[in-house]
Amino acid sequence: MTPRRGPALEAPIFTALTPLLGRLPPDRFPRHDELNALVVSGGVSGGGAPIRFVPPAAPSREFSAQYEIRIFETGEVQTRPDNWHDLFNALAWLAFPRTKAVLNRHHCEEIRARRGERLRGTARDVLTLFDEGGIVVAAADAELQALLRDFRWKELFWKRRKDVLRSMRFYVFGHAIYEKALEPYKGVTAKALIVDTAPGLLDAPIERQLSELDARAAEYFSGAQALVSTRNLSPLPILGIPGWDPSNGSEAYYDDASQCRPGRLGAT
């Protein structure tokens, strides 16, 4: 399987999917049964139903709500064939099953609590932002975490580049970010969940890292505080991550505000 344009799926931005991509057909989109064969035992929806990838139902005005509720109640994740966006969503379910289940449960709780209301509400905005555009950042250095939260991109990714490579790992969660990575453009930004980790985890096999980070992310989103504001998650210009863009090997890259935007006034 190769993207239409842009980086190969072997690029660092796709690292979280590497264990899965190696098990898919190399020259075509996988069928639903091939995706279902990768579902691990215990992979369930927010309602506890075993996850299965199925063809989509006919779209409707309430498709978003019905989509989440169907996953919650039946475990059926509607997945369009030959579609990058839906394929990456399916792979996110496989790579981060516990976190996806927690997001699905919250979606359904919010949908049912707000039935009949026109506005989605802040909680669903948070859930959608991370589901579509999230990235999990494992960090074993508190100073580096602070630089990320404070939008100090040049100091983080250039001046502390070696420290970042040693003490941080970045795993994309959001399926929309993966789709954008097929044809990347300046300023692609993800919403980062920063997970404080022990140094030893960063050198562990990727399967162990993902399992631990999935559990930690699921724990974070299980708490009500995670859903009170879209600003709880830190913006992260992902092409600034060392090695994620061939151009970011020069200091001048981090002076380009279209790549590394400054923080909001008053941001914390």
Please describe the topology of this protein.
Layout: H1 18-21, H2 32-36, E1 52-54, H3 63-74, E2 76-78, H4 84-95, H5 97-113, H6 122-133, E3 134-139, H7 142-149, H8 153-159, H9 161-167, E4 168-172, H10 175-182, E5 189-196, H11 206-222, E6 234-237
Parallel strand pairs: 1-2, 3-5
Antiparallel strand pairs: 3-4, 5-6
Strand order of the largest sheet: 4-3-5-6
Order of helices and strands: HHEHEHHHEHHHEHEHE
Structural class: alpha/beta
Q: Can you summarize the main beta sheet?
A: 4 strands, mixed
In total, how many beta strands? 6
| Cα separation of the termini | 41 Å
Instruction: Give the rounded overall mean pLDDT.
Output: 91
What is the CA-based Rg, rounded? 18 Å
Number of helices: 11
- Beta-strand fraction estimate: 5-15%
List the uncertain runs: 3-7
Shape: globular
Give the % helix. 40-55%
Commentary on this structure:
The structure is a single chain. The chain is of the alpha/beta class. Helices cover 41% and strands 11% of the residues. The longest helix is centred in the middle third of the chain and has 17 residues, at 97-113. The model is unreliable at 3-7 (pLDDT under 50).
